[in-house]
Amino acid sequence: MAAETRPLPLPPAVAPDWALFLDVDGTLLDFADTPGDVHVEPGLVDTLAVLHGRLDGALALVSGRRLMQLDALFAPLQLPAVGLHGLERRDDGHLDIHHRAPALDDVLAAALALTSKYPGALTEDKGTAIALHWRGAPAAEEPIHEFATSALIDLPGYHLQPGNRVIELRPDGAHKGAAVLSLLAKPPFHGRRPVFVGDDLTDEHGFTAVTCHGGFGVLVGRRQPSAARYALHDPMAVRAWLDDAIAITE
Ligand SMILES: [Mg+2]
């Protein structure tokens, strides 16, 4: 059977009884060649701060980045947030961070050696996880996949998580769906309609989690198949949708 390719409809306006979970890269922020080069559009921090208040605190960032990176990007705002796809979590002032597997150091050194051969490729040390990026070096895609697959042999309890021109070596059990469910179990998220907005394969776990709890996913872009019910075209459309939410509820 052919895959469903019909575009998903636009999402409804943000409602005050929602719990809103927002991916960051490719959702709130446009992609850059490397994760360090992303740009936070003027006004976005203010919009998120106002919306966080309007939703009585039920707005969280859910990202593959580390929490410290999220805080630096959105300073001075410190939102409830999930980092490293669930390995780091901050809600209600409580911080929960997993520890690094010792075998990861050798894999990290080998990954750095590999990506240094391809200008534009990048190894990102995420503490408990390693991400290998090839957005700036398409020729590195195949060697990176071969490397990541073989590196798994030395990392029991880890798995590969493919993303948008990136692959991560990541501990088992960490994904955005589980992270969303853990936030939904407690105030200020508990009892609200959960909505997850994201662009990547890793966000599908989030879409499924919110759908199982009476909410829905909003896909950024046109990737199919997806568990999302609605879609927005790109991060600019997401930012406009959030700006509209503030204007409507004012
Ligand atoms: Mg993303």
TrEMBL record:
EC number from the UniProt entry: 3.1.3.12
GO molecular function per UniProt: trehalose-phosphatase activity
Catalytic activity: alpha,alpha-trehalose 6-phosphate + H2O = alpha,alpha-trehalose + phosphate
Obligatory cofactor(s): Mg(2+)
Keywords attached to this entry: Hydrolase, Magnesium, Metal-binding
Pathway the protein contributes to: Glycan biosynthesis; trehalose biosynthesis
Principal EC category: hydrolase
PANTHER family per UniProt: TREHALOSE 6-PHOSPHATE PHOSPHATASE
NCBIfam families: HAD-SF-IIB (TIGR01484), T6PP (TIGR00685)
Function: Removes the phosphate from trehalose 6-phosphate to produce free trehalose.
Family: Belongs to the trehalose phosphatase family.
Name this protein carries in UniProt: Trehalose 6-phosphate phosphatase
Source species taxonomy: Bacteria, Pseudomonadati, Pseudomonadota, Gammaproteobacteria, Lysobacterales
